[in-house]
Amino acid sequence: MKKSNNLTVGDIQKILVGLAIPIMGSSFLQMAYGLIDMIWIGRLGSSAVAGIGTATFFINVGFAINSMIVTGAGIKIAHAIGAKEEQLTRDYIRNAFILNAVVSLIYISALLFFRKDLIGFFKLGDPAVESMAETYMIIVGLSLVFKFTNFIYVRILNSFGESKLPFKINSVGVILNIVLDPILIFGMNMGVGGAALATFISQALVTLLFVKRSREFFILKEHFKYSVETIKAILTLGLPLGIQRVLFTGFGIVIARIIASWGPDAIAAQKIGLQIESISYMTVGGLYGAVSSFIGQNYGAQLKERMVEGYKTAFKLALGVGLITTFLFVVFPEFLIRIFVDDRGTLDAGAAYLRIIGLSQLFMCVEIITNGSFSGIGKPKIPSTISIIFTGSRIPIALFLSQEHLFGLNGVWMSIAITSIIKGILSPLLFRRQLKKIAF
């Protein structure tokens, strides 16, 4: 096993930024798959965008379930590395992959078997949109076996303090996706299916590269030798965040069902808005990964003061990202939406979405890095509880504010912004209280 990058010594800001930038790059590249698909599919019209948007909700449920394994394994591996326990590190890595394989196969099978019922939940009332959604779900659903595996590789390598390699590997996948999208969508006249197939091929290549290059850091041995206790430890830490993300996605599906009553333009506006919003989410997501690994190693090494300074530094960086994003969303919303579509209805709804959501970006960024810090100290239940409560409250708030005599569709966007602001205030307060309780 290769020696990990030691995050327990050296300049904190330099370490965090150096670790975060490649993670941000990797996050942007992961986002780029959907973004590139959306740009090309947008040329086919709002109906095609709505089709992909509908299917993507259920793909995201899979990502949420996978996060349970990724988070739990990442925390335990970082702690083991910080404590310099190599055999324990190997055990957690091996069992993470075993658990990932089992969960991915179960979820993919369920997704394909129930696809018609899942798409039918939205009651889109347009057979063409439903057909495109089903096609996209089948192909991208099959690609989840690669996507889930890639997430595991990224988190493990980040726990080793290595973030450049995942960035390089994901770059290859995105470049391939950029090349394949126009060829398959328009050149081979495959439409939505072409975009999905481009993602499938690209993700498969990324998995192959991870398998080959990760040997520089660890080698999987005794592939089928599992430990119930090790798997239980991973799930104990990962389950709260996994439940949070599954419920978060489920709440999003219910919100989308509410939005669907305004028609395909509203669905397309939300999908495009989410893609644009993911720019800030993925940027600060790099800081999430960096601060989680940083605090994880320092927690394992019992260096409390260094943990505190690491959080303060990440907090300041998150504030900067949030302020920049707020400015862009509030000042240039229509310009950003027009990158994807020219339909007037989608433009108006999407611009309103960005303006309203833009006001909460600062708080969302603070919440994300705080959640990463909670994971670093092995306390993911606290942010998960906060997220479940206030994300779930979006549904009744949206139903109330979206009444015609109040704010209509904008009321849905407002429910998202209001709850994000509350979470962004509450999470840091509770984390600082938790830090005071730590005594090595």
TrEMBL record:
GO terms for molecular function: antiporter activity; xenobiotic transmembrane transporter activity. NCBIfam families: matE. It is a multi-pass membrane protein. It is found in: Cell membrane. This is Multidrug-efflux transporter. One of its GO terms (cellular component) is plasma membrane. GO terms for biological process: monoatomic ion transport. The keyword Transmembrane applies. It comes from Propionigenium maris DSM 9537. Keywords: Antiport, Cell membrane, Ion transport, Membrane, Transmembrane, Transmembrane helix, Transport. The chain crosses the membrane at residues 12-36, 48-75, 96-115, 135-157, 169-188, 194-212, 233-259, 279-296, 317-340, 413-431.
